[in-house]
Every structure is written in structure tokens, then in C-alpha cells.
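Hello,

Following up on my earlier ticket. Below are the two sequence lines again, exactly as submitted.
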Amino acid sequence: MIRIANGQGFWGDWLEAPVRLVEQGPIDYLILDYLAEVTMSIVQKQKQADPLLGYARDFPPLIGRIAAKMKERRVRVVANAGGVNPVACAREVKRLAPELKVAVVLGDDLYGRVDDFLARGLELKNLDTGEPLSLIRSQISSANAYIGAFPLAEALATGADVVIAGRSTDTALALGPMVHEFGWKPDQFDLLAAGTIAGHIVECGAQCTGGNCIADWQTIPGFANIGYPIIEAEPDGTFVITKHHGTGGRVSLETVKEQLLYELGDPRNYITPDCVADFTTVRLKTDGADRVRVSGIKGRPATPFLKVSISYLYGYKATGTIVYSWPDALEKAKKADEIVRARLLGLGLRFEEIYSEYFGANACHGPAAPGIGQPAEVMLRVGVRDKNKKAVDRFTREMIPLVLNGPPTATGYGDGRPPVREVVAYWPALIPRGEIETRVEVVQ
Amino acid sequence: MRVPLSRIAHGRSGDKGDTSNIGIIAYNEKNYPILLREVTPERVKAHFGALIEGRVERFELPNLGALNFLCHGALGGGGTLSLRIDAQGKTMAAGLLGMEIEVNDSELSR
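Thanks for your patience. The regenerated structure is below:
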């Protein structure tokens, strides 16, 4: 049995979680998931500005902080912290923790290969719309293939203490150590599916140990000291989800089920680079306090393609807010929205989209929100999006004047004009597997 | 009698682009048939009204006593394009759990 713990559900997750996982109990592997789609375009921009950047900058200092304990307790780290510059990330880790052996997985970054793909007739059509990539060629800011668990296992086979990947899938971070330790083969689909689903359960960190749990949330103990998840993985593909003794939070059938369903599409067809996992085969059983045993998982062969995530500059957006107190807070906010829209129209401004929400009334659930009587206050939030930056910028000047020239009791304008933000959009596509060749390097 | 769905179920929601995924789970698996009967794609779409522009698909996970709904066009463009505060549909499960369902006293287990 090996213990694989996840200490980071996204770049920005709790800094203390990975440290506590290493210090507060036994684990064999610490995995850290840093990359979201939005992250890839941010790190690509950082690398363009400085060739020594372009990775998750929280990661090297974390390794510096836990390096001694990792050595003492023989804990190995697998992380997709490399962004678009895994080698630079690895060098910084080596600088802060020279005693550790560090390997990188390369080959997922396709940013420099897009023109070659297009020239060879690979259209990289948008999976949702069917449009060819050539439509947005000049706006592309990053392009990465999602890679699976086998390159990570290959990197672990070098004996590295730290394995740094770029755009590996979140689930591969958990499956990679299982493939390495148990010698699972690419055609053992049930085992690969089991490791993939284990990875899915822990990939959002504390979201399977009581965080963001709707079931009986008031009774979940010790949020301040919440334990992050640990997979106790067996060579036969069964596993237990648990957390360190003495930590807060909860591992129960409810917390695990909620996370199983998170960001799920068709449950029979969970497609990864390693296999297609079937969530309708998952069997759960309570296995003592804060322990859930998972078994029965079936999988099928992977598809002949890898998913590619391409980011591109789409346009601009801004959102402005203003607060109205009672009485009649919602009526005032609606009147203010009417006024802003009339003024934008009067200025001749058109937007691809303009959207208004009423916080305190129905912003989250729209028509599904419960009826409200007389809310104490309502915040109007108006957002616009367009390809024309000037129009969006002009909009940002139209909210604050309402304080003096609109309905009464307006407040909450203290932050001034809202910023205009770039909208980086995503272009999902597929690429034949043969186009992507990963390789492992040990970084000195 | 009419009760909110939250009486017999919990859940979690997330996003895939402009699609909101809402997982609804029976606290007691004996109540799963009630979910199957009461929480239809049509009722989910009607519950959220204009918030869901596209169609609603339903997938069954009897092994977990759960249903997974994919609500297409429910996130104002999704991801970074969306102008909504809940651009990733994080609160959609709570919204659906507020929907009223029709149950008989005798069939309720908790």
C-alpha cells in the first residue's frame, strides 16, 4: 500500500496544507495541482516577459520549506507546477533545495508548434464550435497538450525526489505514482481507471475532506485545521480516501460522493490520456472514522487523441458595482441599471454583452432564488464585454456618477472606477497522440 | 406533500466551459427512485428559467444514488467570458436543492 496525499487543489490554495501533510503523519507521495486553464496563459505571458519565469512561483519556496522533512520521511513530490517552463522551475527548486534530485517532464507545450500543425493540415478545430484554429491564430497566448500518468511514472523511475510537469492532467498526478509503484501497464484499463478516479476525488484538495460540502455542513468539525486528502492505494486498484489523524474536516460517503460528481460530464465516459473511466462502477463503503473504501472501478481504452487547451485574447470586460440601502433597495438598484443602460445607449456604445445582477436578491440563482421581502441592501453589479477596449473603458466611468445623479441612498463606491480586464478565452481541441512526444530530464 | 429537494438530497456543482454540472445525491439511497421521478431535466430547466439558455441532460449514477445534470449555456459564456458573479456555477447545486418536489409521507426515508 502507498499513501498519496494532495496538498494543493489549485494555484492559490492553502499554503500550509502541503507542509502539514508532510509533518502530521505518514505519506509516500505529495502531489500538488497548480494549473487551471487560465493559469496557462498567465504563465506564458510571464515567460515572454522573463525567460526565467512561466511556472507556479509558490512551488520552489514550498519545496525549500519541506525539503529536510521530505528527505527524513522519504516523501516524493509530483506536481504540475512547471507551467510553460518546467526547467526554470526545477532550477529554482535545486537552488533552494540542492539535496533533492529533480526531474522534469517536457513535451506538452505546443505554443511554438502551432504554425507547423496548421501548415501540415491539422486544423485543431474547436471541440465545441467546430471552427478551425486559423480563425484566431494571431490571438493565441498558449497551447498545451494534456499529458497522462506514464510520463510521470517514467520521471519517478529516475529516482527523482521531485517530479515537475507542465500541463499534465490533474488525475495523472495521483495515477503516476501508482503506475510507478505497482507496475501497471497501459492496457490495464480497470486499474488505470481506478487510479484516475482516486485522482479525481483528491484533485481539489479539501473539497473531499469536508470543504465546500453541502451535506450537514454545520456539523463538520475543525475547518480551521482541515486535513487534506490521502489516498491509501493498493496494487489491485482498490483504495481508501482518508486524512491525517487529529486534523479537522471529515471524510464520509457524503463528502466523497459530492467530489465524485464535481465537474463531471457523462459518468460512463470520463476521458483522460490514460483511459476512459466509468463512474457508474464506483463502489463506496465506510471503513472506520474518516475513511471511505473505494472499489469495483472499471475502465476502457484511451482514445487515439490527446486534448489540447489553447488560450487566446478574446476581448475586454469590466464590472462595476453600487449599493443601495433599504427602503426599496431592489427598486432603486433596478432604476440605476435602467439609467446606466440608457446613458450607454445615449453615448452610442454597443457591447457584445451587458449583464446586470442584484446581489442580495437573485444574483446567484436568478428565477430559482427564494422570494425576498424587504432586503436591507442590494448591490447592483453591471458587467460588459466587448472586443472594443475603448467602449469597455468608457463604461467604467458610468457607474459612480449615480451616487449623485440617480436614485437615493447609493453607497459602496469607495474602490473607484473598476478596471478593464483582458478576456482570455479557451479553445479546446484534439490532436493525434503521435504528434506529442514527452521526454524526461533530470535537472542539475 | 411538497418538500424542498434539500430534505432528501445534497449535491455539488461545477463547470465545463459554458455548461454547469449539477450533481444531486440522495442522503439515503432508498430515496433515489424519488430523485429519478421528481428531478427531471424538464423540471431543472424550468426551475432556473432564463438562467439556463440551452438544454438540460441527465445522467444516472444508481451506484451512488445520484443524478448528474449538464445544463448547457447556463454560465453566461462560461469561464473567463462570463459576466456573472457565479461564472463557474459553484452555487447551482444549492439553487436546485431549493426546488420543491412532491413526495408521499410513506415513501420518505432519512
